[in-house]
Amino acid sequence: MALIVQKFGGTSVADVEHIRAVAAHVKKEVDAGNQVAVVVSAMAGVTNQLVDYVDQTGKLYDAREYDVVVSSGEQITSGLLALVLQDMGVSARSWLGWQFPIETNSAHGKARIEGIETDAVLKSINGGEVAVVPGFQGVGSDGRITTLGRGGSDTSAVALAAALGADRCDIYTDVDGVYTTDPRIVAKARKLDKITYEEMLEMASVGAKVLQTRSVEIAMKHGVRLQVRSSFSGETGTLVVDEDEIVEHELISGIAYSRDEAKITLVAVPDKPGIAASIFGPLADANINVDMIVQNVSADPEHKATDLTFTVTEADLERAVAVVKSHEKDLGYKDLQSDGDVVKISVIGVGMRSHAGIAQRMFQSLAEKGINIQVISTSEIKVSVLIGEEYAELALRALHTTYGLDGE
Amino acid sequence: MALIVQKFGGTSVADVEHIRAVAAHVKKEVDAGNQVAVVVSAMAGVTNQLVDYVDQTGKLYDAREYDVVVSSGEQITSGLLALVLQDMGVSARSWLGWQFPIETNSAHGKARIEGIETDAVLKSINGGEVAVVPGFQGVGSDGRITTLGRGGSDTSAVALAAALGADRCDIYTDVDGVYTTDPRIVAKARKLDKITYEEMLEMASVGAKVLQTRSVEIAMKHGVRLQVRSSFSGETGTLVVDEDEIVEHELISGIAYSRDEAKITLVAVPDKPGIAASIFGPLADANINVDMIVQNVSADPEHKATDLTFTVTEADLERAVAVVKSHEKDLGYKDLQSDGDVVKISVIGVGMRSHAGIAQRMFQSLAEKGINIQVISTSEIKVSVLIGEEYAELALRALHTTYGLDGE
Question: Predicted ipTM?
Answer without folding.
Answer: 0.81
